[in-house]
Amino acid sequence: MVAQVNCRGYVISQFMQPEPAKYSHGPNLEAKTFIQPEQPFYTEHSGRFFYIKDHATGDVFSLPYEPMRKTLDSFVFNAEMSEVRWQIKHLSWQFDIIFNLDLETNLEYWSLDVKNSDDSERKLSIYTCFSIGYMSWMNQGATFEPELNTIVASSVTAYQKVEDYPTVKNLNDKTFLMSDKKATSWCCSFADFVGEGGLTQPDAIQHGVLPSKTVNYETPIAVLQHDVTLEKHANESLCFLFGPANNIEEISEIKSKCHLAYFNNVRAEYLNYVQQCVGNLHFDSPNVGLNHVVNYWLPRQGVLPRRC
């Protein structure tokens, strides 16, 4: 499992089955390559976005930055040793976004912590929007599974020879987005979600409640809506799992991992794993960035224990 994360919210992720495969794509047919360095990004590029609507002011903005690109009151991006983290403040709201990977599974772990910094009760809607994109010309679609509180997109990897099907059917061609909290509404249709406004101003968000639209043979997207009411200085945490699967039964088994306690355990295990890559030599200079590269990045480029 490899993930390339951009501070703006764009993410490229691949896993092996046994060849490199994706579960989150761009909006059109992509050439199959491994992750390219320094590639250009565009608005519909695969990403993990959170649209926020403040019910008191009517303001709508996106986290961590794309695709609405609105200037935020405070923005901090931390590429830490074992996780990626954003700390954002805007309109008296505080947001803490954490992205992590698991040691054993091909899953993305995301958490969003929201705090009301105001002295009065406030309401907001959170629209978690994770790209799925153009999966296959043979078959693609998505629906919401209420018992799992999960959006599941399905596809069939394109093949031409009948004898290839036994191999293709065993591939992890499903993509799912799962939340630990019951969703207020959802949308699986890219076209219905963006409408005429595109990802920079999605029509579905302007309407308030997502259209709960499934798709067949159309480009899917995974959007979950959570309406949250917070007392003064209160906070709310949401956890999400995003990744590939072979069937619904596999996703059902993963459901038990979608809660904050398990997420914190994954963070601790991954930190312990990465610390095995820290060398015995510690470099200290006035340049903090250089220190980080020498002490934490360079040691991870060689032959390291376990799966490093």
UniProtKB/TrEMBL annotation:
For this protein, the record's Gene3D superfamilies field holds: Glycoside hydrolase, family 65, N-terminal domain
Residues covered by the Glycosyl hydrolase 94 supersandwich domain: 43-257
- Superkingdom as given in the UniProt entry: Bacteria
Q: Which PANTHER family match?
A: CELLOBIONIC ACID PHOSPHORYLASE, CELLOBIONIC ACID PHOSPHORYLASE-RELATED
Q: What is this protein called?
A: Glycosyl hydrolase 94 supersandwich domain-containing protein
